[in-house]
Amino acid sequence: MAIHIALLRGVNLGSHRRVAMADVRGALAAEGFDGVATHLQSGNVVLRSPLAPTEVGRTIERSLAERLGLTTTVIVRSPEELAAAIDADPFRAIATDPARHVLGFLSAAPEPRARADVERIIAGLPADGDRHAFAGAHFYLWCPNGISSSPYFKVRWDLLGVGVTQRNWNTATALLHMADGPD
């Protein structure tokens, strides 16, 4: 069975979409997924399934809606895809604090026009050392003054026209470590 990393969008941020990770693990185990493990309280799941990644995502979305009343977008990566995204980090040389370094996950590469629209919005923001880069179905942010004070915090990433979720570098690398752990 393949290992999948499932990223739930917007879970347990402030008072919105509150759900206990124990309930998420229970719902996904009841759905037939194996080895379900979560990291932190922000919707990070590692599991095993013979299903294709897109089917894993759809099944998780349906299961969480039916069993927990939670409607959210789920983006799935294999350990190899996550490792490749981490290895492709364009800010490796300057990103000195993993809590201020972000990996964005997209459900698909955005259409060029949508990406250009978001790039125009970003170009109009004060940079103050903040950097961004797109690469296929991922984007990278370096926010040296903190994520919540970064102008990127105000960008409407949904304008890309695809599912979007973000994780800081600590979380992204922890998920890769979990996925690479013992079977």
Q: Within the CATH hierarchy, at the fold level, what is the topology of the largest domain? A: Alpha-Beta Plaits
Q: Give average pLDDT, whole number.
A: 95
The proportion of residues in beta strands is: 15-25%
Rg for CA atoms = 16 Å
Number of helices: 5
Detail the poorly predicted runs: none
Name the CATH class of the largest domain.
Alpha Beta
What does this structure look like?
The protein is an alpha+beta fold and 183 residues long. It folds into 2 domains: 2-77, 2-Layer Sandwich (Alpha-Beta Plaits); 81-179, Alpha-Beta Plaits (2-Layer Sandwich). It is built from 5 helices and 8 strands. The strands form 2 sheets. A 4-stranded antiparallel sheet has the order 2-3-1-4, sandwiched between helices. Helix 1 crosses helix 2 and helix 3 packs antiparallel against helix 5. The longest helix has 16 residues, at 53-68. The chain starts with a strand and ends with a helix.
Quick structural overview:
The chain has 183 residues and is an alpha+beta fold.
How would you describe this structure in keywords?
24% strand, four-stranded antiparallel β-sheet, globular, 5 helices, 2 domains, Alpha-Beta Plaits, alpha+beta, 183 residues
Describe the protein's topology.
Blueprint: E1 2-8, H1 21-30, E2 34-39, E3 44-49, H2 53-68, E4 74-77, H3 79-87, E5 101-106, H4 112-123, E6 131-135, E7 138-142, E8 164-168, H5 169-179
Helix pairs in contact: 1-2, 3-5
